């Protein structure tokens, strides 16, 4: 029997409806319009399309959003100036600096300059530290999206063997921490694999829930998974182009190879990606409410 498809598109749509209702309520009852500024440096086509999607989603939900696009040769100090200006601008409750930045800009210097209250990516050390401690904070969007996917498909993590492939600051490390926490959505036994892991399949085959965020197209095959496992594919790899010039996407999981062995699986596209953008909207609303003392 083929795996049950976990539709990020459908679950994201449900959450977007919830957010849209909340945005209307904030407007009506508190004259509060959540605001998001997205900052894009350079002209990488993938980054352009992600930022466009973020702004489009914000508008649909009634969130005020503005995109600021700067040339690739923008200096670190110019970008820092812009971040400081946005920190002070009360129209914006959330600031997103699209990554990756051009190599002459130190990403940490920029991310650390964003006010933690406006850090809707959850990348600032204050929010990273709070996450680690289990304190309320702005959570990074992709890990938060994965928790929502599992919760809303009634997949329990308590006592489960969760194996994560990838140790990035954006996905691997924070999702590992969240799954460890002593609260619903956590309580898992967590293993994190990476490029130096000696026998990847030995670990991944033990997973009840396998989360793959390695950035290597189709690396996870049937031999890597246990029969009936939940497989969450975070990979978004551009592996080619259609005749019309549209990017062809592949996940980190070889979907065709795994689909008859997994119990449930997220597709790419249409799985984790739409959840990531939705959590950015949720964080923007949370930041706006916090800014005016509603949380
Ligand atoms: N400051 C910052 N924050 C981010 O959250 C951030 C970032 N930089 N840099 C790049 C990564 C990547 N990322 C994705 C978001 C949505 C989809 C997504 O919606 N994907 C669609 C397909 C989109 C397409 O067709 O290209 C899907 O999987 O169905 C993918 C990837 C956010 N990122």
Account of the protein in words:
With 295 residues, the chain is α/β, with parallel strands linked by helices. The protein has two domains: 31-115, Rossmann fold (3-Layer(aba) Sandwich); 141-273, Rossmann fold (3-Layer(aba) Sandwich), CATH 3.40.50.720. The chain is 40% helix and 17% strand. The protein has ten helices and eleven strands. It has helices at residues 8-30, 45-60, 76-88, 107-113, 125-133, 141-152, 172-180, 200-204, 255-258, 272-291, and strands spanning 4-5, 35-41, 64-70, 94-97, 161-165, 189-193, 209-212, 230-233, 237-241, 247-250, 264-265. Strands 1-11-8-7-5-6 form a six-stranded parallel β-sheet. Strand 5, helix 7 and strand 6 form a beta-alpha-beta unit. Helix 6 crosses helix 10 (272-291). The longest helix is centred in the first third of the chain and has 23 residues, at 8-30. The mean pLDDT is 98. The structure holds 5,10-Methenyltetrahydrofolate (GUE). The site of 5,10-Methenyltetrahydrofolate has 19 residues, from helix 2, strand 4, strand 10 and helix 10.
Question: Could you outline the blueprint of secondary structure elements for this entry?
Answer:
Blueprint: E1 4-5, H1 8-30, E2 35-41, H2 45-60, E3 64-70, H3 76-88, E4 94-97, H4 107-113, H5 125-133, H6 141-152, E5 161-165, H7 172-180, E6 189-193, H8 200-204, E7 209-212, E8 230-233, E9 237-241, E10 247-250, H9 255-258, E11 264-265, H10 272-291
Parallel strand pairs: 1-11, 2-3, 2-4, 5-6, 5-7, 7-8, 8-11
Antiparallel strand pairs: 9-10
Helix pairs in contact: 1-10, 2-10, 6-7, 6-10
The structure holds 5,10-Methenyltetrahydrofolate.
């Amino acid at each position: 029997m083929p795996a049950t498809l976990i539709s990020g598109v459908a679950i994201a749509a449900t959450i977007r409806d919830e957010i849209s209702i909340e945005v209307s309520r904030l407007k009506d009852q508190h004259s509060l319009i959540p605001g998001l500024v997205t900052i894009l440096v350079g002209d990488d086509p993938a980054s352009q399309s992600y930022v466009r999607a973020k702004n489009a989603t914000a508008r649909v939900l009634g969130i005020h959003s503005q995109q600021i696009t700067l040339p690739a040769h923008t200096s670190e100090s110019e970008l820092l100036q812009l971040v400081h200006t946005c920190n002070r601008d009360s129209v914006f409750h959330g600031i997103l600096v699209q990554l990756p930045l051009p190599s002459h800009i130190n990403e940490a210097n920029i991310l650390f300059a964003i006010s933690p209250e406006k850090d809707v990516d959850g990348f600032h050390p204050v929010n990273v530290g709070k996450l680690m401690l289990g304190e309320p904070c702005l959570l990074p969007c992709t890990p938060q999206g994965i928790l929502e996917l599992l919760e809303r498909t009634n997949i329990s993590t308590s006592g489960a063997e969760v194996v994560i492939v990838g140790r990035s600051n954006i996905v691997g490390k924070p999702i590992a921490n969240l799954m460890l926490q002593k609260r619903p959505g956590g309580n898992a036994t967590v293993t994190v694999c990476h490029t130096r892991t000696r026998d990847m399949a030995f670990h991944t085959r033990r997973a009840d829930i396998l989360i793959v965020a390695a950035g290597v197209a189709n690396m996870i095959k049937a031999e890597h998974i246990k029969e009936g496992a939940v497989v969450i594919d975070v990979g978004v790899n551009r592996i080619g182009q259609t005749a019309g010039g549209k990017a062809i996407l592949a996940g980190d999981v070889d979907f065709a190879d795994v689909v008859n062995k997994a119990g449930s699986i997220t597709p790419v596209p249409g799985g984790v990606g739409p959840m990531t953008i939705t959590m950015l909207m949720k964080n923007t609303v949370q930041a706006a409410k916090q800014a005016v003392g509603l949380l």
